[in-house]
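Subject: for your reference before the review

Hello V.,

The reviewers asked for a structural picture of the protein, and I figured it would be easier to keep everything in one thread rather than splitting it across files. Below is the amino acid sequence we used in the manuscript, unchanged from the supplementary table.
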Amino acid sequence: MNSKSVTTEKQIRIAWYAKAMGHPVRMYVLELLSNQACCYSGDLSDDLPIAKSTLSQHLKELKDAGLIQGEIEAPRIKYCLNKENWAEVQQLFKQFLKI
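And here is what came back from the structure prediction:
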């Protein structure tokens, strides 16, 4: 059996980001943040018809993937896109989709 990997680092990164983006609520958050500087978790929970704990889990997934970053401004958390990783996502997907 050949132990050589068939995947590239680029494919692994695309899959990692795609998995994090793989839910409509997460896509909503990313779209919202791509159109404005930042937002607060409380504002998001007011906008979305989901439990705060569910929203927190979605935000955690996006943060763990490096797509967003959070800054504590007690008692709230301010979320913004991670601009460096967001640029990487755009570039990786453009290359992958050949657009």
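For the response letter, the relevant points are probably these. The chain has a mean pLDDT of 92. The two ends are 36 Å apart (CA to CA).

Happy to draft the paragraph if you're swamped.

O.
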